[in-house]
Design goal:
alpha+beta, Nucleotidyltransferase, domain 5, 3 domains, flat
């Protein structure tokens, strides 16, 4: 991804994800997709690595180095580190030329629909301090809908369920804006933590977050449609009784059980949004179906579970993981249509 350069005249769309950081430009498409992780020395706070390199250090760093995620549950937990991370990722795709010639792009950043005023200001400040000329915020489900190719500006109801790393956003969109929405701080990272807790409770074995994520991807599912879908994975962890390494087997049924609670919370959120959606828009949604985006939507059979629960057709966007990033970039060409749905640094930071 990072081999592409960004032309100096290009504006930039950013998906500031809890798990993954993506940068999109109109002419090049997706130019960067790396873990939202930064590694630094514990004492001096000097940054040692960012993205993929920093992610490989999680759980493996020597005493003096710590690998952290500066974005938690979809919002900025550490403003200074987030700013450094944005700057470093931009430098990766722009090279030194952007700094050299003083190029300042416009940036559109996707944020969860539940972010507070304080969090909005933090994101805008981080973007401006990372060399943006102007910064805009767009709610992630709206960006996801645009990126997934839905016709959001029409007077028709579209429903998006965007399951990211730190938050899940459910929204009904019409006429270029969000009509009703709910944001939940339960998503891909919560899935991983649920698997860690399950393995600890059932097997007395401690596994790390990277191992949990691998289990989720390899054998995970929201539900099993038949016995042939039950896959098995070998898992290594630390035995909590004797402290020694131990290998155990986990199958898809185990993971379905482990994920039942967070998956149910997302399904209930979808039902709540449908309950408060105007009847005319519900009629459109029944005709057009629900679209799922975000890495969490790739959990096997999650779409089928939602379909069975709501009785509405459900599909997963072809570009599920990139949809928000693509939508942020495309939104920069839709400023006049989306105006009221965006937050701009021009007036927001002056208030």
């Amino acid at each position: 991804m990072e081999g592409h350069g960004v032309r100096l005249s290009e504006d930039i769309g950013i998906d500031l994800g809890t798990a993954t950081f993506l940068i999109y430009t109109k002419s090049r498409g997706l130019v960067l997709q790396e873990p939202s992780v930064i590694a630094m020395t514990r004492d001096s706070k000097q940054v040692r690595a960012v993205g993929e390199e920093a992610y490989r250090m999680i759980g493996r760093t020597p005493g003096g180095i710590v690998a952290v995620r500066p974005i938690k549950d979809g919002v900025i937990a550490d403003e200074g580190l987030t700013e450094k991370m944005i700057t470093m990722f931009l430098a990766k795709v722009q090279g030194n030329a952007g700094r050299l010639f003083g190029f300042k792009p416009q940036m559109m950043v996707g944020v969860p629909s539940s972010v507070s005023d304080v969090e909005r200001r933090a994101v805008l400040r981080a973007a401006l301090n990372a060399n943006a000329k102007r910064a805009f915020l767009i709610e992630e489900p709206l960006a996801a809908a645009i990126g997934a190719g839905l016709k959001v500006t029409e007077p028709l109801g579209s429903m998006v369920v965007d399951i990211g790393g730190g938050s899940s956003d459910v929204a009904v969109i019409s006429l270029g804006g969000i009509v009703v929405s709910e944001s939940m701080r339960v998503a891909g990272n919560e899935f991983d933590e649920s698997i860690i807790r399950y393995v600890r409770r059932k097997e007395n074995v401690l596994i790390g977050e990277r191992t949990a994520e691998e289990i989720k991807v390899k054998v995970g599912a929201a539900m099993l449609l038949n016995d042939s879908e039950n896959l098995v994975a070998e898992v290594r962890g630390r035995d909590l009784i004797n402290g020694l390494p131990r290998t155990i087997s986990l199958d898809s049924r185990d993971v379905v059980e482990a994920l039942a609670e967070p998956v149910t919370r997302i399904v209930e959120g979808v039902k709540r949004v449908l309950e408060i959606t105007p009847p005319e828009l519900v009629s459109d949604i029944i005709d057009r179906g629900i679209v799922m985006t975000g890495g969490g939507s790739l959990l096997r059979n999650f779409d089928e579970l939602l379909r069975q629960t709501t009785g509405i057709p459900v599909s997963v966007a072809e570009n599920a993981v990139e949809a928000v990033a693509v939508g942020t970039g495309m939104a920069l060409d839709m400023l006049s249509v989306l105006g009221d749905s965006l937050v701009s640094s021009d007036y927001y930071l002056r208030r």
